[in-house]
Amino acid sequence: MFPAVFTVLTPSNVSAFIPINTRLSIFSKPNSKLSLLPRVSSNGPDSTSQHSSSLSGIDAVESTSSGLGDGYVALFVRMLGLDHDPLDREQAIIALWKYSLGGKKCIDTIMQFPGCINLIANLLRSESSATCEAAAGLLRSISSVNLYRNTVADSGAVEEINRLLRQLSVATEVKEQSMGTLWNLSVDEKLCRRMAKSDILPLSIKYLDDEDMKVKEAAGGILANLALNRNNHDAMVESGVIPKLAKFLVSNSEGSKVIKKEARNALLELVKDDDYYRILVIEEGLVPVPLIGAAAYKSFTPRLHAWPTLPDGTEIEKTPGQNSKFGASELLLGLNIDDKNANIDEAKVNAIIGRTQQQFLARIGAIEMEEKTVSECSNDQLLTLLPWMDGVARLVLILELEDKSAIVRSAESIAGACINEHMRIAFKEAGAIKHLVRLLNCDHNEVQFAAIQALERLSASNIVCRMIEAEGVLHPLISILKSSEIAEPVVEKALNIVAQILDPSKEMQLKFYDGPVNGSEKMFDKAKSEIPAGLRTEQAISETNSRNAILESDFIARLVEILKSSSPSLQEKAASVLEFVALADQTLASVISADIESGLNSVFQQKLLKISADMESDVEEQFSEAYTIEFEEAGRAISAASRLMTRLLDNEQFRHKTDSSHFIGLLREILRSRIPLYHKDWVAACLVKLNFLSSSNTSSDPINVEVTLFETIPRLLEQIKNSFSRETQENAVVELNRIVSEGVVDSSGAIISEGAIYPLVKLIEEGSERAVEASLAILYNLSMDSDNHSAIVVAGAVPALRRIILAQRPHWERALRLLRNLPT
């Protein structure tokens, strides 16, 4: 009998001993066993019996042998080498991938062999989809272990996967495993920064539209991890990630729970980073909503036994009929709101549906169940994103709770969400206004400020502003403003709301309103007639009573005090409210007694203007450019005060009490200042009226000249330069020609200093006949001074004049006279 000979299996002969089916199944179960089979010699008569006896001993060997996977990992790793047959390499990578699914211990066994990662990454270049899938799957398993992520990234796997996924045709299985690998790698902060510098971002956005849900989930996970780094946000937004991710949250049927979670996390990081990104997210139909904890909703007490009302408080009319015995008619009221015969506009329908859903979740204790895993904000405050209909209803629901901190966060979220007319109308229909007005009477300062902030953003809508006034907001706001201990931000926002309500232009806009400014026409179909006819008289009486509170002497004194000692933004709001007082109270007794002259004097003597007045022209110009915002705020305050003073000058008592010469001097200095030109129109009007009404008219001509030089001419030149209307340009240049032809002192210098020659030359080539005639006349008058010749020539007037003359266009003779004046 010949002894049995054992042969050690090597990569070169392992395929001869292990059938393909066995090779595939070896590592399918990490705990499977395999013994080394004895090689039987072919010599000798007892070879057959010896072979059978050796086979009978396999079971005994299996019971005591070490694990199959651990024993053969080295062999299969060696089979990944480039010197082996592609089929053998494919079988080896598949076997190793299956083995790696056994957990970290199996992955540790594979990673014992240096260089195996490079061989695995190299297989991503294979033409076989099965090989690429197995290689990506094995890299995905290895990258799931924190210890090996850097090793995977250093092997060039990211670049190979990027190349692989950019091919025109990639198998779904390969995409799933490849994207899963990138998802695992993106968990590491350093690797995430490295991936952001590559083309992984646009690739991930592209695969959000893939048909396979697993690929979408991996793409969403990568983007969520990239969003954790603020440096990636600009690139993500510019690549259009917000609409792509928002669609998974807006639609209930779109996407799985995993992709919804990842999309929410990514968008929340963008929302927390920048207000502009928050606006973009809201425009996609999502509203940021604070998570306050399910326990906070226990204080919510729905009115179960009261007659139903619409969310905005409008009562539903009771129809004469027999009520049900057990109140089913009241309980079931509103179930048919989608019925066309219900005669309810879309905004109210959405408000009813949103309120019903959120109140139901709150009553059964299921609210905030899905959002409890949302990532934490920097201020230890949680946020989630809800479709706008649910988000609006949730925020209004929180306003009804007892938790003060939750109310503050809800009101702040409402203020942040009011980015357009659609959202402001949605909050109005959801009933937010009545709760916010109620919160103005709260003793809690933070709650009060948050409510004022939300009402200020809502009041930007003309329709919502009327509703805010109808809810009686003026009385609490006036009470707040009367206190001198209120912080300036609160005073500013409260004054802004009052000014918005009292703005007479809003009344006119409502009367001549033709449609929405930015979308959703259905919301406005009933906007003008949404107040029942029977309630309009009562509302008008209420508005009249509340507006009468504006005329109280102590409130007017407070407004004048704000004019004297506040910032320009507050001065502007106070002047606007006082203008309403001047229109409503013709006697002006309370205004005059409050020393309104001192308030106006303070507004006209802005510190910024005093500083710039002492500077040289070049330095003053640089100073005005450096403080553009401050000059804008000062200009708005001065314009509002000038408008107020123009109204006050209609009162004889005010005219006698006012020092006209003093205010004329102040307004003349303002005309020469660097405040924006569009704020000087009321300054000029007030100055002319004040000069006309004053007893001494000796300075009449100089004042008119100053108004012309510092307001009229710059305004006309601004229209010539920047207006897109040919008619506006024509009228401006004709008016400018009239001023020049009348010989107003220094008018030519003012035109030259404003850089008007270039647009005038452009007009003689492109303007209408009337504009060409006026432009030629102005340029001819300017050419009478030889100092202006170079500026006219440099502006290209000579070629333009020659073309007019050669073509014998209208006014060519005037062009010839101008050309003769120039040094050509």
TrEMBL record:
Q: Which SUPFAM superfamilies match?
A: ARM repeat (SSF48371)
- Which keywords does this chain's UniProt record carry? Repeat
Highest taxon above the source species: Eukaryota
> Does this UniProt record's set of keywords contain Kinase?
no
In residue terms, where are the ARM repeats? 156-189, 199-241, 431-462, 755-797
Show the SMART domains listed in the entry: ARM
Q: Does the keyword Metal-binding apply?
A: no
Q: Which Pfam families match?
A: Arm (PF00514)
**Which protein are we looking at?**
U-box domain-containing protein
Name the source organism: Arachis hypogaea (Peanut)
